[in-house]
UniProtKB/TrEMBL annotation, chain A:
GO molecular function terms attached to this record: acyltransferase activity
Species assigned in the record: Actinokineospora terrae
InterPro entries recorded: Thiolase-like
Protein name: Beta-ketoacyl synthase, N-terminal domain
Gene3D superfamilies, per database record: 3.40.47.10
UniProtKB/TrEMBL annotation, chain B:
Gene source species: Actinokineospora terrae
A GO CC annotation given for this chain: cytosol
Domain of life assignment: Bacteria
Keyword line: Transferase
Family membership: Belongs to the thiolase-like superfamily. Beta-ketoacyl-ACP synthases family.
GO terms of biological process kind: fatty acid biosynthetic process
Protein name: 3-oxoacyl-[acyl-carrier-protein] synthase II
Molecular function as annotated in GO: 3-oxoacyl-[acyl-carrier-protein] synthase activity
Highest classification ranks of the organism: Bacteria, Bacillati, Actinomycetota, Actinomycetes, Pseudonocardiales
Domain (Ketosynthase family 3 (KS3)): residue spans on this chain: 3-347
Amino acid sequence: MSATVEAGVVVASAYWPESDVDTVTAVTGFVVSAFNPLVAEVAQRCMSAYDGEVVADRTAIVLASVGGDRTSADVVAEAVAAGTRVAPLLFFQSNPNAVLGHVAARWGLAGPLVCTSPSGEAMADAIACAELLFAAGEAAAALVITAEVADESGGSDRAEAVLVMARERA
Amino acid sequence: MADHPVHITAAAARTAFGRDHTRLRADGFAGVPAFAPVTRFPTEGRRTRHAATLPGAPALVDELVGVIDEVYTGPKSTVPLLLAAHADAGNRALAAEVAERTGVAGVPRVYTGACVAATSAVADAATMIATGRAERVLVAAGYLVEPSTFALFDAGRALSRDGRVRPFSAGRQGMLLGDGVAAVLLERAGKDPLARVAGWSRSGDAYHVCKPKPDGTGLARAITQAMTRAGVSTGDIDYVNANGTGTQFNDAAEVAALRLAGLDGVPVSSTKSVHGHALEASGLVELVATVLALRAGELPVNSGYLGADPHCELDLVVDAPRRTRVGHALTVNAAFGGANTALVVGAA
């Protein structure tokens, strides 16, 4: 059964982890941090769970993360503080758009790409972003992703993805 | 969609040219670049030393509060703020402090989508007003040159080594970073508006993690959709404020997009050539520059031009600002991941 949101219908969803021994597939070119592979993993699971069709040019990707890729940021800050060279691969993964470029290319999704740090509940705000895209006519569907990696205060890596269709297309 | 008009009723940008628009309009529009050796932090061991920075070591939160207070002095308790800044674990605290100090109704999120973060915020703010979700929305964005990003762009060999940014020019070497903090107030109705956000659209390339799609089709789609929303055709666009980073791949792909959209005969310049690349804030700084150009009827120079690149055949504004009436202008931005935005700005 599809869940509904204000202006759209959730037609597929995925989570990470699904179990205590769940794993993440590495993504070529992304190093050091679990953040980007986590985003790609949950996107893969969500898109694989949907057996319908999406219109490539009309499908957006929205990524919301409160903490973002804090691992990569810390590695860069440590290198700068130590006066050592920053690894070139960290250049492109220093912003969240890069992994969305990977997801977009993998699934052929050529709609808008939106990345945010939400002030409130991440999935609710990410879906609010998707609804604005629907309201503007900029997209008819959105792959909506939230991801957080563990920080020094504890917690664990976690991610969620939903594929939302604008109501008129559902 | 109800399609209420979206007016820009106030705009402010702080760049290396200062905290008001005087020098940006005078020197920046004339093509005098603001790049200088960085003194804010050490640059030993980097391939370049240059950026365009404000004096000293300003604090991002102070600058954001400053531009927000500058564009709207009325009661802010019912006005939402959409903020754009670099992806950072401290963004929730940044948003909370800006909200507390300015008194805005709230900051639902910080847009972090690299070089289209600010224009994505503008697009959402415009949608909120056009669809009746809000009557008034503040948008602010900020980036101040700091050592981590400088080191990253240096490691990625993205920075120009000759101290200049030369968009679309033969001999261009890349980009340089620049401070940029900007805000606009968008309103459904407003007294004496500066301009209108007549059209907006976003698209993706679905191509690569950091390279733009060389054929320009993704960006061209955003441009044509924004013009369609604005109800204008190519002949109505009098100026294009280009993304124009000064890098080989990006500039060539952008020219391909402008050609596909039928805009390669329209006057074009990239003001990044004088104020540098303000990353997440770049689109808002450039929107303000576009509004200034439209209001003044004067197109800013595409600085640093050395000569024609056969892959970048455009009607570039070089040598001196060009006087012309601007009814509609287009400002485009593109980012890592193949994210593209286009905003059509109309005269009020």
